[in-house]
């Protein structure tokens, strides 16, 4: 044991200075890891002229009319040699009641806390590789060409999601895939992304984790966007059955966006085929949409869009929709929005052809919906 009396005070002072210097030197090393907290809070009122089953009107408070309400954590770390590590954690919640948003995961798998993202990865000049629960590349490819950029209300975000739900979200032994959540989020997934010139693309594979098979319960997806004088998009994804490895969902899309002064004209085509685990084809939905954005003021963007969604195997499952909206950017992080939809639903219309978050407002009827709210980001 060293006795303090045996050490000169000048040496002690030098030792303290050395410790302080080492502490100061270590701070920049810790600062190489950057962590950020971010989020979206979105809420408003929704009026609809008709509801099922009684056909009466309804007014309600709704969450996420423009964009989903989320709380996220993200970070990156310089690993040297041109390599960077990163992570993403993202919660999806409902502003109107504070609850976690419902999940499209298979029955019996629970409600994930980090529904939207729970992943980490590496990136460099060669692109990036991401491991864990994450957004699929197919939907990401079409954000620039979908007439309403897959806004959370009144867009083909819901036709996309609902066409990948019934065939994959069943209980064990039924139509089921535990790596997929409405074709937007994928668990147990590996994704490679890269940008080559004007083309950004992603390729994802979610291994099934089933003994004796590399196909059962697996999913794969790809999507690409070309950004030049015009924007072009393409995607395809397949979600396989947990028990039989059948292609329960096959989903593809094409899109284009053409800017012209303050206007951007858009057109998008989506096709979704649903089968049972035994391979029986139950639906084949075509989603055709067109629209135009008009930047009529520095702070205002108006959008007019038309959606025609039809199941070719079930002729009465057909909706025609017109949407008019205006987004007013009070500032970069705060938007007030007003949007109206006219929905003409045939007598057999289902959620597979819906652009409304809650599904078809009134089957076999014409309905008008009006949604106004505020979107705050931080």
UniProtKB/TrEMBL annotation:
InterPro entries: Gram-neg_bact_OMP (IPR050298), Gram_neg_porin_domain (IPR033900), Porin_dom_sf (IPR023614). One of its GO terms (cellular component) is cell outer membrane. It is found in: Cell outer membrane. Residues 18-346 form the Porin domain. One of its GO terms (biological process) is monoatomic ion transport. Keywords: Cell outer membrane, Ion transport, Membrane, Porin, Signal, Transmembrane, Transmembrane beta strand, Transport. One of its GO terms (molecular function) is porin activity. Residues 1-31 form the signal peptide. It comes from the Bacteria. It is a multi-pass membrane protein. Homotrimer. This is Porin. The lineage of its organism: Bacteria, Pseudomonadati, Pseudomonadota, Betaproteobacteria, Rhodocyclales.
